[in-house]
Design goal:
homotrimer; 136 residues; alpha/beta; Hypothetical Protein Ychn, Chain: A; 5-stranded parallel beta sheet; 6 helices; 5 strands; globular
Chain lengths: 136, 136, 136
């Protein structure tokens, strides 16, 4: 646990939210801050080896009124590349939530090598202690 | 106010997000950390006595591309049971946001007994002071 | 940077989430806490001069099951007025994320005068240091 750590609970699996999370992680890593990530639900699903290269949808906000959203249809938001960069820039640890693995019916071995291990909420909360936490 | 408190602003009313929030609350309570919850908008709506037992939808992320999401259709995500467990495990206080009560046109008496009281943002922010806060 | 600052990463552009964020910002400002806001993606889009007065949609949660959501159709959620009030109540700074400006293909001059400047994640994280941060 570290006073200046940045901890992210990633819940969402849309490309734009994953990208927003990755830029925060990369920014913190570049500033020398330890980064702890917990993957839950749809964010965990996004890190499955067999889906990680898929084009992912955007958040509801982007699609709700159609034509006025210029990022739509560009086809590629580099969220995965930004997470890889964050890991190279500094100290970032990615934990797959064991409860969410159960919900999705998968094992940690089904996940990309960026994911370091699986564990419970208590493990994450103890690593996050004293720092800042965001739910994305 | 406590240095090690975990405070959650609950906005969303989908079963998966409520469940993610409840697991964080239960984990923190089990670690002996005080938990403060503020219910706004659709999370507040979820705690209405006449709706709290309803099956709730999943987040947009789950439904956006249909078939690939295995949790769909399982019918029951135990978010309410997990909140009840959190309250038994430790010190957890649930506040209904008075502004959101107005928006929804309901009174605090319409809410489940898990909700302790109603109050404003300032009340919540003062209870949350010095600890970690997440918006879910 | 300030120990008691409240920092908000605004991602979502729906009226209800913007309103929830604005009430938290106004509450913190009224308590004398410095407020730092970073606008990303759809929240940034909401602050475009040519769209800021538009009626905005509600979050997925509000619309997923239709008829049971009484706030639907009221037509006006005063998120913008609440941000303006927050700025009058205390010290609030709004930063447009430079990466998101690129994604949306716009310049900071396209944004409402409530937005103070543009900058990167590092600028925001340094201003947020030591305080509480929420992602909305």
């Amino acid at each position: 646990m570290s006073e200046d750590s940045l901890s992210l609970v990633l819940f969402s699996g849309t490309a734009d939210k994953l990208h927003a999370a990755a830029t925060l992680a990369a920014g913190a890593a570049a500033l020398g801050r330890p980064v702890n990530i917990l993957l839950q639900y749809w964010a965990l699903d996004a890190f499955r080896t067999d889906r990680i290269e898929d084009n992912r949808s955007l958040a509801w906000d982007a699609t709700v009124d159609g034509a006025s959203r210029p990022v739509r249809g560009t086809g590629h938001i580099p969220w995965l590349e930004t997470f890889r960069m964050a890991k190279e820039l500094g100290e970032m640890s990615i934990l797959a939530c064991s409860g969410s693995l159960d919900v999705l019916g998968i094992d940690v071995t089904a996940l990309d090598a960026l994911v370091d291990s699986s564990g419970g909420i208590a493990t994450f909360l103890m690593a996050a202690e004293g720092g800042q936490v965001l739910f994305i």
